[in-house]
Each structure stands twice: as C-alpha cells, then as structure tokens.
C-alpha cells in the first residue's frame, strides 16, 4: 500500500514525523482486528501517513475520528484505540495524556508517537501513563509506543517500570544523535 508522503529510507515522512513500514503495519493491524462497532480516535499532531495506516486497517463499522486535542467533549462514548501524535511542548503533552486515555475501554490500546524520542512527550508520558496502574507497556516500534489498558498489580507495575526504564538508553542515544546532527549543520 502506498501512503501519501515523501519516501525516505523505507519510511514515510511528513513534517518531523517518520512513520516506518513496521509502524504503519502495526497501526493497520490494530485497526484490522477491531470488531464493529468500534472507535479509533487520533489526536495531537496526526500525520497523513498515520491516518492512512489506520484507515487502511479499519473495517466496516469502525469509526475513525481525527480531532484536535482540545475537542475531547466532541467525542461521545468510549474509545477502543487511541493514537496520540507528537506534542512539541511538555504542557500540551501532559494535558493530552491526562485527558484522553481515561476514555479508552478496558483492554483498549493507546499508541503514543514520539515516545522515547521527544523529551517533552517522553517526560509527560512517564509521569502519567508510565507510572499508572491502569496501563501496561506493551512495547515500541521506534518512536511508536504501545500501551494496553489494564489493572496492574503491584508486582506487574514494577515489571512494567523496568520494561520502560530499559528504553532510556535508546532515548539517550537518539538525543545524542539529534544534538550531533544540529552541531554539524
């Protein structure tokens, strides 16, 4: 499938966001397995590549909404899959991560693009979702982190914190590369 965007080393580029083929497939797969009726909400900076990936996977009866971060009241009912795009400022990221995830159904999925790649978003993510007993860290594909809405025991929270802490070295390498690239340009 071809998604609108500039080809870039096997990835899809829109603005600052690079959606790799694996990330695109992950979004499509999560949309594909939803049974009707279901709702996918995309908020934050949602690129055409991310939206196209979700739309390609969504079947009949799966509603896909792309809304501004402040439009939470416009979305009635629960959310099966929530995609939060990158936020440039810490305050904006913190606001989105405090307001939106509470609407996700038990067992629902939260995707956060920019996790462990953007300092402001990563800090807000770890402060809210990452330290919550309501979310299990499922893993990440590059900058696309996936969480599952769950009720974690104390022991599960400890293991979850360890799994997220294991991402910090990759985050540090990404930041070092970004700074080196800025200095050389």
**Tally of individual helices:** 6
Largest pleated sheet = 6 strands, mixed
Catalogue the unreliable spans: 1-15
* Strand neighbour order, sheet with most strands: 5-4-6-7-9-8
Secondary-structure element string: EEEHEHEEHEHEEHH
Distance between the termini: 34 Å
The strand count comes to 9
Radius of gyration, in Å, reads 16 Å
Could you tell me the mean pLDDT?
87
What percent of residues are in strands? 25-35%
Q: Percent range for helical residues?
A: 25-40%
Q: How does the helix and strand content classify structurally?
A: alpha/beta
Shape: globular
Notes on the protein architecture:
- By secondary structure, this protein is α/β, with parallel strands linked by helices.
- Helices cover 38% and strands 28% of the residues.
- The protein has six helices and nine strands.
- It has a six-stranded mixed beta sheet with strand order 5-4-6-7-9-8.
- Helix 1 packs parallel to helix 2 and helix 3 packs parallel to helix 4.
- The radius of gyration is 16 Å and the shape is globular.
- The protein starts with 5 loop residues before the first strand and ends with a helix.
């Amino acid at each position: 499938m071809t998604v609108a965007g500039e080809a870039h080393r096997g990835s899809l580029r829109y603005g600052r966001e690079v959606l790799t083929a694996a990330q695109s497939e992950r979004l499509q797969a999560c949309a594909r397995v939803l049974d009707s009726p279901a709702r996918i909400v995309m908020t934050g900076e949602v690129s055409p590549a991310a939206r196209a990936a979700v739309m390609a996977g969504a079947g009949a009866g799966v509603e896909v909404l792309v809304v501004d971060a402040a439009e939470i009241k416009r979305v009635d009912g629960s959310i099966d899959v929530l995609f939060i795009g990158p936020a440039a400022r810490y305050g904006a990221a913190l606001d989105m991560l405090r307001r939106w995830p509470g609407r996700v159904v038990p067992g629902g999925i939260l995707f956060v693009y920019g996790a462990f790649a953007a300092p402001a978003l990563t800090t807000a993510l770890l402060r809210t979702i990452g330290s919550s007993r309501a979310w299990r860290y499922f893993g990440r594909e590059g900058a696309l982190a996936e969480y599952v809405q769950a009720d974690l025991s104390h022991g599960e929270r400890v293991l979850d914190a360890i799994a997220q802490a294991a991402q910090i070295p990759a985050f540090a390498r990404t930041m070092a590369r970004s700074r080196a690239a800025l200095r050389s340009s």
